[in-house]
Input
Amino acid sequence: MKLVQHHRKIIAVAMALTLFSIIMLQLAGCGGSSAKTTVPATTTSQVALGNQTTTTTTTTTAANVAVSNSDGSVTISVPAGWNTNDLSLYPGAVVGIANDANSEYLIITKKPKTDVGANSTINDYMNLVKSVFAAVLTNPVWGSTSNVTIGGCSGLSAQLTGTRISDGSNMVYYVNAVASKDYYYNICGYTTSAMAAANQAQLETIIKSFKETN
Output
């Protein structure tokens, strides 16, 4: 009788130890196929969430700011964080903005129509713009000219490449010569040739935000 009770105690202890071991293994994440499935699934979900967060941060457009010239007659929308008062880019500019970190720049020039000629046309003004670039670039190459309307002002648009005489940089310019009732404007975004593919879309978006306010 005592021997049977002794065996029963041994079996009970063994079962208790086995149950304890199973519980500890489960808590450690090593207890069977369900645990192995759960851990990778959770990790994958976290990675996907991380990628989604990064993508959202990267693609979300930063808040823009409106930039005006000194008399408030023209405005343009620029990404926050850009230098919005860099008139040193061109002495005749009424607006000059720059993102030096990414080699992105834009200027706006303004000229009364009467200064170009009493019966001048947008073609006359575009020729004047080209003569200015001829003085600051080595071997300027103009692409085809197309019609454009920006902020209600119609005109001509063309891409220009050339080497800047002042520092030897190879540049790409997005020239937009447009006319309002009384003025001609050149809304010109530009960047280095090396950064043109990356920067063209944003520069063109900024250009299209131009408006004459009075």
